[in-house]
Amino acid sequence: MKAKLENPKFFSDVISIISELVTEVKLKFNDEGLSIIAVDPANVALVLFKLPKTAFSDYEASNETLGINLDNFKAILRRAKSSSNLVMESRENVLNLEITDRVKRNFSLALIEIDAEDKDMPPLEFLSQIQINPLDFVDAIEDCLIVADSCTFSAEPEKFVVEASGLNSARAEFSSDEIKIISGTSKSRYSLEYLQKFLKASKLSDKIYLNFSSDHPLKLEFKTDDFILAFVLAPRVENED
Fold this sequence. Notes:
The chain has 241 residues and is α+β, with helices and mostly antiparallel strands. The protein has 2 domains: 2-110, Roll (DNA Polymerase III, Chain A, domain 2), CATH 3.10.150; 128-240, Box (Proliferating Cell Nuclear Antigen). 15% of the residues lie in helices and 46% in strands. A 9-stranded antiparallel beta sheet has the order 6-2-3-4-18-17-16-10-14. A hairpin with a 3-residue loop joins strand 12 (159-165) and strand 13 (169-175). The protein is elongated.
């Protein structure tokens, strides 16, 4: 496998976000591009990342899976600037990474065995689909973090509400005039700790796609022409408080 990525800063940011959920992943390269799918140790959240072949300026790969430690991978990728070029090449038991800007630098990352079974994105159906500006959604979540450790999403055909309550409360209400809503009536509660980690990706796209149903998992997506980063989060149930 050999793949060249120009302006790899966004890739570094994505890997850094994923590393907050899991410490090891399998990088899967095939004819379509690069993909990562992993579940956090608590089995509460799943992350999916897809970087299509077209996002690379040079790409040669058959079916190949590389196990890597994310802390080490993240540390190397952080050495790349937005103007750098990144070349990844697998050789025997290592992943070679070449970063080129004014100077060409080379790193070797030892591959590891990962025993975790391969995961797939679970088949999910959603009653509520929301498209929202990242800054507005981040503000709503940060408001909720002031008062609680979980928040409730409520959706109707013309309204979407994010709210949290403890001794104090916070609430943000959006109408269909401000955001895109395709919804019946749904209500579900989710961990703010996980949502806060996911939303570190808010600077990577100009829309956040939320999909949920009453007391069902949330699917949160960041999409551009170059990649998809998606998270699935299990709902919080009442007896967890």
